[in-house]
Amino acid sequence: MKARSSKPRRSRAAPDFFSADVTEAQRFYLNLNPSPEEPLAVVCGGLEHCTPHYAIHRRTFPFCSLEYVARGRGHLRIGGRDCPLQPGRVFSYGPGVRHDITVDPADPLVKYFVDFAGTQSRKLLKDARLAPGRVFQVFPPHEAQDLFDELIHSGLKGARHSANLCARLLECLLLKIAGARAPLEANETRAFTTYQQCRRHIQQHHLRLKTLGQLARECHADAAYLCRLFRRYGHQSPYQFVLRLKMNAAAERLQQPEALVKQVAEYIGFNDPFHFSRSFKREFGLSPDAFRRLR
């Protein structure tokens, strides 16, 4: 059960499903009685700093809800499944989904939440692979925090378009979380760690990387295995990831007035400027020369 805000920004009373076991909270309230015909309506949301005694035991909940752990440790039991809570852990619940949340007294949770309703709410959660009762990890742990902060900021403003803006931000938030999903299963941990290490290597060395074989040798991994990892966790091949980084670096260089296409091609590791131009156009829909004229 969530907690009563220490500094309410709206005159509307806090819902009675909030808990008092928080040291600090920042919350907003929009429509606490949304129309059942509305496609998507954010009801309320916020950030809570839990006390060491914080505990939730619910058999059900009136809205769909998404929670995101920013700091601290705890434990979740949801849908008959036990799961530790830690930074980056995301979970959802809703009507008919029993859930129990407790905290580690030595390191209480700081967590974001958003409650919402509407005819599209369950579909949005399902599309993000976060149907009520699901849990997963976001990597890096604070990947979605800025969007939660913007959601709270927009909700607290109470402007005429706040409800619509918060609904759109919620959709963006679900897409962001779905794209940053990391595995919970122990048997996937080693594979995901290898993926993370190779991804970091590409980010650091993409300008000089030219082939999948080179990447595999430098990462001490089999090339076919790397392709499977990137498809599973990144939804693209290692080459596509390298190429995107190279083309972004090229676009930055092309913004400089003195930059020549041939020089930029060499800078990102292309020996053939024509091959570079074709690749650049496939990536961005414009040739390097056309892109330069946008300055």
Overall description:
The chain is an alpha+beta fold and 295 residues long. It has two domains: 2-182, Regulatory protein AraC (Jelly Rolls, Sandwich), CATH 2.60.120; 186-292, Homeodomain-like (Arc Repressor Mutant, subunit A, Orthogonal Bundle). It has ten helices and 13 strands. The chain has helices at residues 121-127, 145-157, 162-179, 186-205, 212-219, 223-234, 238-254, 261-267, 273-284, 288-292, and strands at residues 2-3, 18-19, 22-29, 41-50, 55-58, 64-71, 74-78, 81-85, 89-93, 99-103, 110-117, 135-138, 181-182. It has a seven-stranded antiparallel sheet, with helices on one face. A four-stranded antiparallel sheet has the order 5-10-7-8, with no helix packed on it. Strands 1-2 form a two-stranded parallel sheet. A hairpin with a 2-residue loop joins strand 7 (74-78) and strand 8. Helix 2 (145-157) runs antiparallel to helix 3 and helix 4 (186-205) packs across helix 6. The model is unreliable at 1-11 (pLDDT under 50).
Which geometry do the CA atoms define? Answer: globular
CATH names the topology of the largest domain as Jelly Rolls
How do the SSEs run, as a string of H and E?
EEEEEEEEEEEHEHHEHHHHHHH
Please write the CATH class name of the largest domain: Mainly Beta
- Radius of gyration from the alpha-carbon trace, in angstroms: 23 Å
- How many domain modules? 2
What is the percentage of strand-forming residues? 15-25%
Low-confidence region ranges: 1-11
Mean pLDDT: 89
Number of helices: 10
Largest sheet strand order = 3-4-11-6-9-12-13
Architecture (CATH level 2) name of the largest domain: Sandwich
Within CATH, the superfamily of the largest domain carries the name Regulatory protein AraC
Helix percentage range? 40-55%
Structural class: alpha+beta
* End-to-end separation: 53 Å
Number of strands: 13
Largest sheet data: 7 strands, antiparallel
